[in-house]
């Protein structure tokens, strides 16, 4: 062998089998020129004209494209940890004072904030270092395609047509609010409710309301209005579902139609225990009859293991517990056994998708990874199924997942990566840590499994406590202006001051842990984070939180919270009201009820659809045209309204119902019993 000559090197590099790369290029250029010369003058002029046109269009559309790219990329927010400005330190305990801005209610009272929220610029910008690379994994959140972050969030807003009869100031003039506002979008009518007046009392309502099955939750007189308002909201949502989407997965309230995800009557099953808890007997009985006569899992359909477990299996199990009706346990058993093929993988880490009719399972088309939160947030349900059926296989498969994850290398002070490989059983895409999408309920279920099993499984507790320490050390920061505490994200040692609304489950979970004897500083952090989640609502013009908030680390008199164009949507998510429920239960501080009440009013004002149902919206910053998305997620009925109801209900009068030392709520708000004796 001899070293290759320069000519050999060039020909190898340019990939020409004959070593004639340069010559070939020359010939190609010559023949192009010859062809151009062969064209008639007319043909040449036409081609030049077309090229000029293309150039003009390109120049004209550049600014809007640039705007879109900016919205899609949040790479500029990534901060190198070593670049954090002085004073931006983790909040490590009670010492950190929360100086929250004065609460602002109603669309017009927030800090000066136009429909376009300016990015922090110039001196207000924290150190904005570019990351080495920016994976788009953050854009792929858990959930159905429709739940994924919409990079074109403003599309619907743009072509929405609206008429706001009262000028849309919302809340400035109480009298105006008394007149129902009619907002017409795309030919559909959204009816905004009264927001400043209490709804009719229970006495007034009772005449029209169907009799309750069993009054499961008694309410004290002072709270009747709010509880009844939640019942009203549920009835309104259910009306739309019943009329236009009965037996289907989700209501599309604007087009008065339905959407199918798995074809399992998702909204209906997710709502069963909510109806029972709210005492809506007639609605419950109708739904039960559908489960009895129509619901069949013997269908050739691919379902997502996690979503089906938390919504359908969880919903059936909790309804069985509340009602004692065998029908629901039978259905749960049938479904549980059909989900089991997901666990037949080389690593025992389950696949994301199962065909419940064929008994086959597979990962998503593009990867052999599963999402970490998905494989570690099915345990409460499978363990409970084993306990009820005395069939150990369900708890065995999910306990094995926890055992594997417990001893897996690649964690960062208890924080876990977002993906795990179903072949190797190892974490993948290491080095990215978030409490938001794809990791959130891993942390929630560590604590809740420990509680479910009577606080006897030490590995779960150990992992949970270590994770909370990791969160405090690496992810918790405070904003510069008002010292709002938030949980950011970490990617390869770069900190991003960005928090998903999904993270707002954390105050509730931390409070639940503290209530169960874990360190009091967990509760301190819960109080601070609860305030921040509240601010994510009240600082928006609609009083509703965006899907993702960005926080300002710079000490300045600028804003604390920013929202990017792609993150302005609200999917009727429950996490904040869920945490408010826990915070109120444990502190009895009525401000948490008031915050929940404000949220319900904002839902009524900006997402309630005339004719029935509530809709996700595109833009929480635009009270004039929030941009309905035409979708009511099943968790709005399964979780959001249930937690609001429980928040306003007088729990003291319900010593035996849904007490937090008797029940643990799964991540879809389905209450499951805490076991009377430890797991075997
Ligand atoms: C729900 O399905 C569950 O709460 C899940 O854990 C997270 N996402 C949705 C609600 O936002």
From TrEMBL:
Its cofactor is Ca(2+). Pathway: Protein modification; protein glycosylation. It comes from Solea senegalensis. The keyword Metal-binding applies. It is a single-pass type II membrane protein. Residues 139-180 are annotated as: Disordered. The keyword Lipid metabolism does not apply. Ca(2+) binds at residue 667. Its EC number is 3.2.1.113. It holds the Pfam family Glyco_hydro_47. Its main location: endoplasmic reticulum. Involved in glycoprotein quality control targeting of misfolded glycoproteins for degradation. It primarily trims a single alpha-1,2-linked mannose residue from Man(9)GlcNAc(2) to produce Man(8)GlcNAc(2), but at high enzyme concentrations, as found in the ER quality control compartment (ERQC), it further trims the carbohydrates to Man(5-6)GlcNAc(2). Keywords: Calcium, Disulfide bond, Endoplasmic reticulum, Glycosidase, Hydrolase, Membrane, Metal-binding, Signal-anchor, Transmembrane, Transmembrane helix. One of its GO terms (molecular function) is calcium ion binding. It is an enzyme of class 3 (hydrolase). Belongs to the glycosyl hydrolase 47 family. Residues 158-180 have a biased composition (Basic and acidic residues). One of its GO terms (cellular component) is endoplasmic reticulum membrane. It catalyses: N(4)-(alpha-D-Man-(1->2)-alpha-D-Man-(1->2)-alpha-D-Man-(1->3)-[alpha-D-Man-(1->3)-[alpha-D-Man-(1->2)-alpha-D-Man-(1->6)]-alpha-D-Man-(1->6)]-beta-D-Man-(1->4)-beta-D-GlcNAc-(1->4)-beta-D-GlcNAc)-L-asparaginyl-[protein] (N-glucan mannose isomer 8A1,2,3B1,3) + 3 H2O = N(4)-(alpha-D-Man-(1->3)-[alpha-D-Man-(1->3)-[alpha-D-Man-(1->6)]-alpha-D-Man-(1->6)]-beta-D-Man-(1->4)-beta-D-GlcNAc-(1->4)-beta-D-GlcNAc)-L-asparaginyl-[protein] (N-glucan mannose isomer 5A1,2) + 3 beta-D-mannose; N(4)-(alpha-D-Man-(1->2)-alpha-D-Man-(1->2)-alpha-D-Man-(1->3)-[alpha-D-Man-(1->2)-alpha-D-Man-(1->3)-[alpha-D-Man-(1->2)-alpha-D-Man-(1->6)]-alpha-D-Man-(1->6)]-beta-D-Man-(1->4)-beta-D-GlcNAc-(1->4)-beta-D-GlcNAc)-L-asparaginyl-[protein] (N-glucan mannose isomer 9A1,2,3B1,2,3) + 4 H2O = N(4)-(alpha-D-Man-(1->3)-[alpha-D-Man-(1->3)-[alpha-D-Man-(1->6)]-alpha-D-Man-(1->6)]-beta-D-Man-(1->4)-beta-D-GlcNAc-(1->4)-beta-D-GlcNAc)-L-asparaginyl-[protein] (N-glucan mannose isomer 5A1,2) + 4 beta-D-mannose. Disulfide bonds join 504-533. This is Endoplasmic reticulum mannosyl-oligosaccharide 1,2-alpha-mannosidase. The chain crosses the membrane at residues 45-65. The active site is at residues 307, 440, 547, 575. One of its GO terms (biological process) is ERAD pathway. It is found in: Endoplasmic reticulum membrane.
């Amino acid at each position: 062998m001899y070293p290759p000559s320069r000519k050999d090197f060039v020909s190898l590099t340019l990939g020409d089998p004959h070593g004639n790369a340069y010559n070939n290029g020359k010939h190609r250029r010559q023949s192009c020129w010859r062809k151009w010369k062969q064209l008639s003058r007319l043909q040449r002029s036409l081609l030049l004209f077309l090229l000029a046109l293309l150039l003009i269009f390109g120049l004209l559309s550049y600014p809007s494209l640039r705007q879109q790219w900016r919205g899609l990329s949040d790479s500029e927010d990534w901060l190198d940890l070593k670049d954090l400005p002085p004073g931006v330190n983790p909040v490590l305990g009670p010492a950190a004072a929360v100086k929250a801005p004065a609460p602002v209610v109603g669309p017009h009272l927030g800090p000066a904030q136009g429909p376009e929220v300016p990015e922090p610029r110039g001196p207000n910008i924290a150190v904005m270092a570019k990351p080495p690379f920016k994976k788009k994994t953050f854009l792929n959140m858990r959930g159905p395609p429709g739940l994924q972050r919409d990079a074109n969030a403003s599309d619907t807003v743009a072509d929405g047509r609206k008429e706001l009869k009262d000028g849309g100031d919302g809340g400035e003039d109480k009298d105006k609010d008394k007149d129902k506002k009619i907002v017409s979008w795309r030919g559909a009518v959204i009816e905004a409710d009264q927001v400043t007046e209490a709804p009719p009392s229970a006495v007034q309502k009772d005449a029209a309301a169907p009799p309750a099955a069993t009054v499961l939750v008694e309410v004290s007189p002072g709270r009747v209005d709010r509880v009844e308002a939640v019942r009203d909201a549920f009835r309104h949502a259910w009306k739309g579902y019943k009329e236009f989407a009965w037996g289907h997965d989700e209501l599309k309230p604007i087009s008065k139609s339905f959407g199918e995800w798995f074809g399992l009557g998702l909204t209906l099953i997710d709502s069963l225990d909510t109806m029972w808890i709210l005492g809506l007997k007639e609605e419950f009985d109708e739904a039960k009859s559908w489960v009895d006569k129509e619901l069949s899992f013997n269908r050739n359909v691919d379902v997502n293991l996690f979503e089906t477990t938390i919504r359908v299996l969880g919903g059936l199990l909790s309804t069985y517990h509340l009602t004692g009706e065998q029908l629901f346990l039978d259905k749960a058993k049938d479904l549980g056994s059909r989900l089991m093929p997901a666990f037949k993988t080389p690593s025992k880490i389950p696949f994301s998708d199962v065909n419940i009719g064929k008994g086959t399972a597979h990962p998503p088309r593009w990867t052999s990874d599963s999402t970490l939160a998905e494989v570690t947030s099915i345990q409460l349900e499978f363990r409970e199924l084993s306990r009820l059926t005395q069939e150990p296989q369900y708890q065995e498969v999910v306990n094995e997942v926890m055992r594997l994850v417990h001893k897996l290398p690649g964690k960062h002070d208890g924080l876990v990566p977002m993906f795990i490989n179903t072949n190797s059983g190892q974490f993948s895409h290491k080095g990215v840590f978030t409490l938001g999408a794809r990791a959130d309920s891993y942390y929630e279920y560590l604590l809740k499994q420990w509680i479910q099993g009577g606080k006897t499984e030490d590995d779960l507790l150990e992992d949970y406590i270590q994770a909370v320490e990791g969160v405090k050390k690496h992810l918790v920061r405070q904003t510069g202006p008002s010292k709002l505490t938030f949980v950011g994200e970490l990617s390869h040692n770069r900190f991003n001051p960005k928090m998903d609304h999904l993270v707002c489950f954390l105050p509730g979970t931390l409070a639940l842990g503290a209530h169960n004897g874990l360190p009091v500083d967990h509760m301190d952090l819960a109080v601070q984070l609860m305030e921040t989640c509240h601010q994510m609502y009240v600082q928006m013009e609609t009083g509703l939180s965006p899907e993702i908030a960005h926080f300002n680390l710079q000490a300045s008199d600028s804003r604390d919270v920013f929202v990017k164009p792609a993150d302005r949507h609200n999917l009727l998510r429950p996490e904040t009201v869920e945490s408010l429920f826990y915070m109120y239960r444990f502190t009895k501080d009525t401000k948490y009820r008031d915050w929940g009440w404000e949220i319900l009013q904002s839902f009524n004002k900006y997402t309630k659809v005339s004719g029935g149902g509530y809709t996700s919206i595109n833009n929480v910053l635009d009270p004039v045209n929030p941009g309905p998305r035409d979708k009511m997620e099943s968790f709005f009925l399964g979780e959001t309204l249930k937690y609001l109801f429980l928040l306003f209900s007088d729990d003291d009068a319900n010593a035996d119902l849904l007490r937090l030392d008797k029940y643990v709520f799964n991540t879809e708000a389905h209450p499951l019993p805490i076991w009377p004796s430890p797991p075997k």
